[in-house]
Specification:
- By secondary structure, the protein is an alpha+beta fold.
- It contains 9 helices and 5 strands; from the N terminus they run αααααααββαβαββ.
- The chain has a 5-stranded mixed sheet, sandwiched between helices.
- Strand 3 (167-173), helix 9 (183-197) and strand 4 (202-210) form a beta-alpha-beta unit.
- Helix 2 (26-34) crosses helix 3, helix 6 packs antiparallel against helix 7 and helix 8 crosses helix 9.
Length: 223
Amino acid sequence: MGIKDLPPDARPREKLLARGPQALSDVELLAILLRTGMAGKNVFQLSEELLGPDGIAGLLQASVQSLKLVKGLGPAKQAELLAVFEMARRALSQRLKEREAFHTPDAVKQYLQLQLAHKNHEVFAVLFLDNQNRMLALEELFRGTLSQTSVYPREVVLRALHHQAAAVVLSHNHPSGSVQPSRADEHLTQTLKAALALVDVRVLDHIIVGQGQALSMAEQGLM
C-alpha cells in the first residue's frame, strides 16, 4: 500500500500537519522526505530498507557512497537526504557552541558520531572548547588507513593554542565497527594529556565512534 492508498488522515504529511511530527514513526517521517517508492517497492518499504537495523541514528551517518547503493534512490533523493543529514550536524554544532557541552554529554557523542562514524577510513579529530566548555571548533587533524593513524602531539598542541582552547575532547572512529579502545588508544590519550598539560589545556574525554555507537573513555575510567 502506497501513501495515496491510505485514508487522508493516515497519510504521513497530513498526519504531521494535524498532530505534529512527534506523532509519526521513523518510517513515516522518512516517507515524507522520499515521497515515492519504486516499481515493486512502495515508499514505506523503501523507508524501512533505508532505516535498517540501526534506525534513524544509523541513517544519519550514511555516506554518499552508501546511498548510491540503495536501489530506487535516485540522485535527487540522495541529495535531499544528505542535505537533511548536514542540517542535523549543523544543529548539533550550534547547540554545542551555545551552551556548555558537558551539561549534555550525549550531545557530544551524537555530534561526533554524525561527523565521523560514516567514514570508511580512520580519522583523528579534536573538539576544541573554551573555558566554559563550549565548542570553538572541530578539526580532523589526522587520517590513516583502516587499521591505524599517525597522531603528532605537537600538531594537536599548536591547534589548541591557535583556538585559545581551555580544554579538548579527543575523538577517532573505528571503521571496523567496534568501539572498544585498544592499548594504543589508551597510550595515545595519556601522551596527548601530558603534552597538552604543558600549555594548560585539559583533555576531558576521548570518544571512539563506530556505526550507531560511541564510547567515552572518561566514562569507562580510562582517562
